[in-house]
Each structure stands twice: as C-alpha cells, then as structure tokens.
Amino acid sequence: MQPPGHDIATLDQVKIDMSGPKAGRQRMAIAAEGAFANVNVEIVKATKSPAVIDLLDSATQNNLLFEHMLRATKQAIFDSMTSLEVAAGSTIIKQGDTDAKTFYVLGMGTCEVLLQKPEWGKEAHQVSTYESGSSFGELALLYSAPRAATVRAVTACQLWVMDRAVYVTLKQRHQRQMSEDKRRAVSQVPMLAVLSQEHKEIIAEAMEVVELAAGQNVYMQGDTGSRFYVIKEGSVTCTKTTDPTKPPAVFTLNAGQFFGERALLKDESGVVCYTLARKSFDSLLGPIQDVWRFEALRKVPILFSLSNSQLFDLAQCMKYHTLQAGQIVFKKGEPGDVFYVVEEGNFTIYDDDENELARVGKGSCFGELALLRQDVRAANVRALSDSLVLTCHRDDFQTHLGRLTDIRRLWRFKALRKVPLLASLNAAQRSDLCTALKPRIFNAGESIVRKGEPGEAFYIVESGTCTVLGDSGQASHYILMQQEVLRLGPTMYFGELALLRGEPRAATVAALTGASVLMLARQDFNILLGPLQMLLGQNAALYGPTEATAGVKQAVQLKELKKIAVLGAGAFGQVFLVKHGTKYYALKCLSKALVVETGLQAHVKREKEIQAECNSCFMVNLVASFKDSAYLYMLLECIMGGELFTYLQSRKTPCNEEQVRFYAAGVVSGLQYLQERNLVWRDLKPENLLLDSNGYLKMADFGFAKRLAPGMKTFTLCGTPEYLAPELVTQTGHARPVDWWAAGVLIFEMAAGYPPFYNEDRVAMFRNICQVKYTCPPHFSKELRDLVKRLLTHSPSQRLGSLKGGALDVKAHPWFKDFDWESFEKQTMPAPYIPKVSSPEDTHNFYAAPDAPGAHQVKQKYIST
C-alpha cells in the first residue's frame, strides 16, 4: 500500500502518538525534569545578523512554544542557537529515536521527511519536504518524546539548533525574573500596601504583560478606568486637560512607575507594562474595599478560627461611621456590643485617670470582645482626629455567621477530629478537650518546640504558618529557608505523641509567619480524660517510638510483610498486595537506581513527605515507609475496587451526568483538601483515582505533588499530556490552577467518553490545549457545558477553583445544585457503582504489567478509542 503523501504537508501532521488511550492501556505521565536538573547548563551567546534573526523569527512565528513570548526572551533564545552544517544524505532526525533533545530551523538547503508505517511495508516513504525557513522537532523542547518521522538532508544543509536544556533554562530564567519584577511592582503601589504578602503574591502573578509600540495610545482621558498598569521598561507621556482654554499638563512616567488615572497616555518609546484588570482583581480577592476590611479582620486574635469566606462575609456586613476629633467612642463600664475597625484617623484607649493604654490607627481594631460575650467595656476610647470607622454589632455578626463562641468551639472540635491518635475519643470527650485548648501567639522566627526537649504538649495551628526544621533545630531566618522539611498551616497539628508519652521532641517547630497555636498539655489531658495510654488500650502499641509531625505511623517492619499478589507495575517498580497480621496493605516499591537514573529523586522525596503529612478520606493514605539497599518502599492503604480508568473501560457508554457528578465531587473534595495545604497534585487522571469498597474515589500517586506558597509558581513540565494545562505546555510557570484544569478534563472525559483535546499528533493536541479548542457533545447539559468552560479557562487566575472562593466556588456551581455535599462528605450517599470484591485478597479489579508475577491484563475496550 502506498502512503497518501499528497494529504500530508508537514512533519507536525504525521507525528504518531506513542501513548494514546489504547484499549486496556494506561496513559503514561511525562516529566521533563531530570536530564539537566541540578546541572549548570552552558549557554553560548552567538550574535547573529538581522537577516538570521528575521529567519528565526519567521520560522517560529506560528510555533505554539514561541507564541506570546516576550521579545527579550525570544531574542535570548535566538542568540543561543548554534549553527550545524550537514552533508547531503545525512540523517538529521531518525524515526523512533527516544533521546530527542533538539529543535531545528533550516537556514539553507532542502530536507525530506520520511515516514514508516507497518501497513506501508518495510520501506520509509517521503511524505513532505522542508526548505529554508522551515522548523521541525519542537516537541523535543518539551520532553523526550520518540521522534515521529525521519528527516534527511537532500542537499547540503545549514541548520540552527536549539537544545532543550538551553531553551528551558533561558525561558525559566526570564519567567522567574518577570515574576520577581511583578512582585516588586505590586509592593511599590500605595493602594495595595494594605494587602498581606500572600495576597500581593496572588495579584502579582495575575498581572499580564503587554508590549506597546511607540506612539500607541493606552487609553484616552474620559475613558472608564478598568485597568491598572505598572511600567516594566520604556516611558509613557501623559497629557491631562483640566481647562480647555489652557495647554494640557504633560508629564512622563518611567520604569517602575504606575498609572491608571483618567488621562490621555501615549507611549514615548516601545513600552512593556504589567497590567491587571479590575475584574481580575475582584474575582481573585473581591473589591479592594472588602479586601482591606478582610486584611484588618484577620489580624484580630478572637477571629482566628473564622474561615476566609466567613471573614469576607463579616467584612461585607460592616457599616461606616464618622467620628469627630475629641468624640468619645465608648466609656469604661458601658455595655459592649459593637466592634470597630479604623479606616481613617487615630484613637486613644485610656483609663479613668487619663493614662493612655494604647493608641490605634488605620487598619487596627478595638472593642472586639463585644463579639465574643456580653460584657462591659474595660477602658475608654476617644477619637484623636476626624475619623472613619467600620462597625459590626454583635447581633449582626450572629445573624450572618452565628455565635462566635460556637464557631470557635466547632473549629476546635473539627481540628481535633483530624488527629488519628485521638480517633477513639467520642464526641463528648473531644468537646471537653476543646475547653482545655489554650491559645498562644508566636512571632515570625520564634520556636514553638525545640528538638530534644521533653514533649509535654500537643499543638494545633490556628492561624499563620509554622515550619518543621531539619537537623539544626535553630530558627534563624536563614535556617528557616534552608532547613525546612515540612510546612504547617491552619488546622494542621504537631506534637500529638506528647499526649501518649513524654519523649524528647524529634524536630524543632517554629513560626514561619506570625502564628497563633492552640496548646493542649498532657497534664490537662490526663486530668480531663485520664492517661491516653489507657484510652487507647492495645492500640497504643501501634504508634511508633518517635514523634511524627503530621499523621501517625504504624510500627510495622518491612520483613513482617507477606506478599500476596501484584497490583500494578510502573516505570520504577511494582505495587504489591501485602499482609501484616490480619490487615492488608499496598506496598509500593521504587527502584533507587531507576529513580536516580531519571533524576526524579526530588519527586519521590516530596511524594513521601506529602503523603506522610496528609490524612483524608479522599486520598490513599500512607501508613509507613521503608528503604533498603535497592528499593524505597511506601506502605499504603489497600483500596481494592480498582482504578476509575478500568471502570470507564468496562462501560459501553459514557457515564451519565448524575454518575459524573458523584465522581467529580470526590475529586473536588480531594483538591480542596490539597488546596487548603498549598499543595498542587499535577497528575490528576482516571488512572490515579481508585474506587474503595463503597464506590467512593480516592486519589493516588503523588509523585508529582509539590507544595507552593500562594502566588508562587513552579516550572517543571510534568503530568499526563492529555491533562496538561496551557501554562504547563508553554512552560510559563504553573501553580494550583493546573489541578482545576485537569478536573475539567476529567469531568469532560467521564461524560463524553474521550478527553476534550486528544489528538494522535501530540503537537496538534498541545495546540488545541493552548487555544482551548474543544467541542462538547450534544448530550451535555447547559450547566455541564458552563462548568467545563469555567474549569477549562486559559487564564489560571480566572479559572474556576482559583478565585477568591477556591473550591467552594466549584461546589456552588449550578451543575452541583441540589447535590448533598454533607451526606457525600460523610460518605452516606449511595455510590453509582459498587466494585465487586469477594475477599481482601481478590485482585481481579487490578491489572499489572503482562510479565509481572501473577499479573493479568484487562482487555475491555475504552470508549474513547
């Protein structure tokens, strides 16, 4: 059979997908990190003539990896490209080569594209030709995908070559510098000074970059101001007319300055600006007035137990009041029922002898105890200047949010319920413990517990961020940055084994920011409930000899585990069903040699640390970890219902929307748990979702998971191609929004039977992703289409799940209307499908590699093929 050569115009159109969704075959994840991570990449700058730069610019103009790239970044990449001359008949690229690292632009000469397919016979056939100005091999700039065709020189050729290591290094360098520039720009704007550092980071990363030509109008005087600009480079001339009979005022703004007034602005020279739309700011944080109030409220200690959404609700129900200089706000002994936040002005707090006790100004609060209890004022307050305050009456607070005492008690109750060591306590016992928790405030850098000191108390983080330090046990700023092994946020806990026995602390924990923690001393616990050892009974022996900072590890030894069967096999090893006594677990075995060879040590280390920290009913939880000379081991919960992927394969039709909604709810709840801990997963797909015996989903495989502070980005390309977000493809830096994009892909795939952007040609698929080019099937409801559209939003900062409401915005979407989240999260809602598991050793829901001992292959046809 002859190849249909006339139908094929470019190499991009003949690329073969090596890991698409074949029947019974899992889609493999990719990771570009490894080949040159932790290696100093040598970048040679070779000045090129204007003609060569024009050639390279033209050759990459429609290449998705160069689209929307800043001119300075593109210029740096062009400068680093090296010249290569090849003789006629030389093979430049060979079909099937897996060590693909280079991208080419043909400067002079002619090349032919040769493709070999089994149905065409053994001979390779010419399907296209390249002339001067053509480019090929761009997928190699992303990761080492096998070459899809052979490219051979027909004549002597001169090529310009780009190496992936150089491309990624330069692009990341420019992206990181841009992020730093944007953070610096935001910090210089007085209007945004009220924002916390966390919110400044979020706003900085949401700012877009625009390049303006010389002479271009930015906006006209009188236009509605909807954007804010910070000049990165260049200068802007501003003209403003206040009196038609007089010449307009003219002034110039330079790099680092900002504007947004209603004036006529014109570029003096080519200008690069960072810009943020007011709509983007509002969707991320809310109106600036509400954000300002929120920032003031979250500094009030008695409000630490309120969630961000509750604080925003409180900010919106506050009322403005003006006070004149000298006016008394309240007097000592008067009933206290109003809480105050100062927006403008200054106040003095003084006693009956006119001794000043404190002075408060803009952004400060007073009278907050009025929200907590009915009590009389303990001091006098007077305005020192004409002032503007926001007030909240206790009745209004209780109408909107309920009694503050109840909120604080519920928060503590829920926090205690998350501690596995206290799982055997009943509700009454937990309620008693709530009253024994004592708040303590720590400044940034201050140690809460020190390594080696006796463990006498257990702690829950109420607000702020704490860090668990490594071997040094010191808490200087440098050590905080260099020795951190774990970060703890609100509702997370540490020191729980102090309630069991007073062994020395295994690590130092310090406040990374100002932090409030709730402390429970072992002595107080014993007075209330008696020794915990007695409450736990025989179960106390399960807890290890040293303190764990998050979660509790069972005292299981590797040699005590009995292998039952193979559950799966991957690139680095196998997963076994194992037995310890009467209990069953999954043992994940990773080859040290393969991990080192691929440069993924950091991934494996993070996977263990993150799973050790997490404990959720929507995750496959870690029980213990081991290592020997050849392998790393993770002992995990045993979930025997199989993968969601396998279940989808077994179906003859896609899931209906009710079924999709149930599984989507599990993903949303799981992502909410990760998001609250500043974790990004980066490998959401049906293959990494397991069904438990009740039919509920559990997230598995956290090899690509990473902790990212709000507003921070990471640049490593990793994940599964069909599920990559645009910012992962373009390597412009990514954060937690990539998981919400993947959730959109998953929901689409479950409802349609195929992923939205899939194409056998990987480059075409990536272009579809970057252009958000997909079509919903006719049977999708209007609400489902809207949910998918809002999750598959190109801009990460505007993606549903990434806005100010976080996961709550997703839960509140109309597609989830009438969905009973409470019964779902309690796991009392019936699942649409219950996996058949006849015994703890029934492995028929899993399949491993064909050559794995005891493995068998699932061969059902997946509908997306």
Task: Describe this structure as you would to a colleague.
This protein has 23 helices and 44 strands. 26% of the residues lie in helices and 23% in strands. By secondary structure, it is α+β, with helices and mostly antiparallel strands. The longest helix is centred in the first third of the chain and has 24 residues, at 164-187. The protein has five domains: 5-171, Jelly Rolls (Sandwich); 189-285, Jelly Rolls (Sandwich), CATH 2.60.120.10; 288-405, Jelly Rolls (Sandwich); 420-542, Jelly Rolls; 644-825, Orthogonal Bundle (Transferase(Phosphotransferase), domain 1). The protein has a five-stranded antiparallel β-sheet. The protein has a four-stranded antiparallel β-sheet with strand order 2-9-4-7. A four-stranded antiparallel β-sheet has the order 3-8-5-6, with no helix packed on it.
The CATH topology of the largest domain is what?
Transferase(Phosphotransferase), domain 1
Q: How many E strands?
A: 44
Query: What is the average of the pLDDT values?
Result: 80
CATH superfamily of the largest domain: Transferase(Phosphotransferase) domain 1
Computed over alpha carbons, the radius of gyration is: 30 Å
Question: Which class do the helix and strand fractions yield?
Answer: alpha+beta
Report the β-strand fraction as a percent range. 15-25%
Query: Which stretches of 5+ consecutive residues score pLDDT under 50?
Result: 1-24, 34-38, 261-269, 472-482, 536-554, 848-865
Between the first and last Cα atoms, what is the distance in angstroms?
24 Å
Q: In DSSP terms, counting alpha (H) and pi (I) runs of 4 or more, how many helices?
A: 23
Kindly provide the name of the CATH class of the largest domain.
Answer: Mainly Alpha
Helix amount? 25-40%
Specify the biggest β-sheet: 5 strands, antiparallel
C-alpha geometry: globular
How many domain regions? Answer: 5
What's the CATH architecture of the largest domain?
Orthogonal Bundle
- Please list the strands of the largest sheet in the order they lie side by side: 35-36-37-39-38
